[in-house]
Amino acid sequence: GGTIGMVGGGQLGRMFAIAAMQMGYDVVVYCDSADAPGAQVATRCVIGDLNDHQQLTAFAEQCDVISLEFENIPAQAIACCGQQAPTFPSHHVLATAQDRLIEKQTFRDAGLAVTPFLQVSSAADVAAFAERHAWPVIVKTARSGYDGKGQYRLQDAEQAAQVPWAEHDAWIAEQFIPFQREASVVVARSRNGSVRCFPPFENEHHNHILDVSFCPSTLTQSQIANATEMASKAAEVLDLVGLLCVEFFVQEDGRLLINEVAPRPHNSGHLTIEGNHTSQFQQHVRAICGLPLGDPNLRCSGAAMANLLGDLWQAAGGNPPWNQAFSVPNVSLHLYGKRDAKEGRKMGHLTATADSPEQAAQNVRDARQRLSCDSK
Ligand code: ATP
Ligand code: MG
Ligand code: MG
């Protein structure tokens, strides 16, 4: 037992709290509303602002160890927590992972393959980058983007002039990668330095938002070995404790590039709750509490996850017919307890396990399909 602090009250904090409390820990969530998905299920919550160091200290004093569930937290807030209790990931890791420029530079310096990039601040900078790397160019805010927010796919200099350059301090241009597929590896690194990787998840995005993940992926054995090695090295380079998700592009020639990392449980790992011997959330608890890491391998022949976005609620008149999903074999529903079903907002997910990843993916899509049609 003991008390784990979780900074952030979103769905990742919620699923973490459920796992940790099952394992005998108390969980204190720090967030801005008692209604937040994580606060609803935690042992207790402390309501406060991320810039309120007095309130953060009052929270941190209650904890034996502290973690977080999103990377866009002021690094100072995490440093403040770290003065009261061991905090993983550290504010150093956070400072790297919350800035796409620093993150890519760190990995490139360590010899890891990343998407070609450049810091830009104007349409002219993008045009110069495109001269070397060709159009289209992907421009992203260096900080605070998620679910594709703050991203622009630019075809020419004219489009580059439309980017709201003045709205953010720092921007990154990336070469557009015409990838074959996308995959991710969640790696756990424990307080004692032991490292274990989940098998790669294969990910399909829709409008730059994760749509469906499945496992095992279609990566070759050598790509799996490569992805696992790169993810482990990324965790070592950051000196991370906890979980790191490394997102990869599989290029047309089969080689891997790191797209980005997240120092926390990841949406693509949600299928581990039903699909794997140890879920990513339980593994996170193990890593930060210094417990032996669990077996990350699949415990079925195929697992898949489909996100449920706010759009679905709109399509189903505010009330999706949940029973319809349960007529598909081995489907599980996870709702995050969010009330406001805004377009593009992650409200929940479905998982399916089956005899193969293809079947699991088909079943999870089928289950989701049944929720959006008004079949009373
Ligand atoms: P999240 O953290 O939720 O994954 P994010 O806003 O940080 O989202 P990215 O992972 O950078 O977003 O991009 C989201 C998706 O957009 C990628 O998974 C990929 O499908 C597409 N994308 C991003 N950058 C590129 C690129 N350079 N080339 C091709 N596709 C890209
Ligand atoms: Mg991201
Ligand atoms: Mg991403």
UniProtKB/TrEMBL annotation:
The keyword Oxidoreductase does not apply. It is an enzyme of class 6 (ligase). GO terms for biological process: 'de novo' IMP biosynthetic process. One of its GO terms (molecular function) is 5-(carboxyamino)imidazole ribonucleotide synthase activity. InterPro entries: ATP-grasp (IPR011761), ATP-grasp_carboxylate-amine (IPR003135), ATP_grasp_subdomain_1 (IPR013815), PreATP-grasp_dom_sf (IPR016185), PurK (IPR005875), PurK_C (IPR040686), PurT/PurK_preATP-grasp (IPR054350), Rudment_hybrid_motif (IPR011054). Gene3D superfamilies: 3.40.50.20, ATP-grasp fold, A domain, ATP-grasp fold, B domain. One of its GO terms (cellular component) is cytosol. Its EC number is 6.3.4.18. Pathway: Purine metabolism; IMP biosynthesis via de novo pathway; 5-amino-1-(5-phospho-D-ribosyl)imidazole-4-carboxylate from 5-amino-1-(5-phospho-D-ribosyl)imidazole (N5-CAIR route): step 1/2. The keyword Acetylation does not apply. Keywords: ATP-binding, Ligase, Nucleotide-binding, Purine biosynthesis. It catalyses: 5-amino-1-(5-phospho-beta-D-ribosyl)imidazole + hydrogencarbonate + ATP = 5-carboxyamino-1-(5-phospho-D-ribosyl)imidazole + ADP + phosphate + 2 H(+). Residues 104-289 form the ATP-grasp domain. ATP binds at residues 100, 140, 145-151, 174-177, 182, 205, 259-260. It holds the Pfam family PurK_C. Catalyzes the ATP-dependent conversion of 5-aminoimidazole ribonucleotide (AIR) and HCO(3)- to N5-carboxyaminoimidazole ribonucleotide (N5-CAIR). Belongs to the PurK/PurT family. Homodimer. PANTHER family: PHOSPHORIBOSYLAMINOIMIDAZOLE CARBOXYLASE, PURINE BIOSYNTHESIS PROTEIN 6/7, PUR6/7. This is N5-carboxyaminoimidazole ribonucleotide synthase.
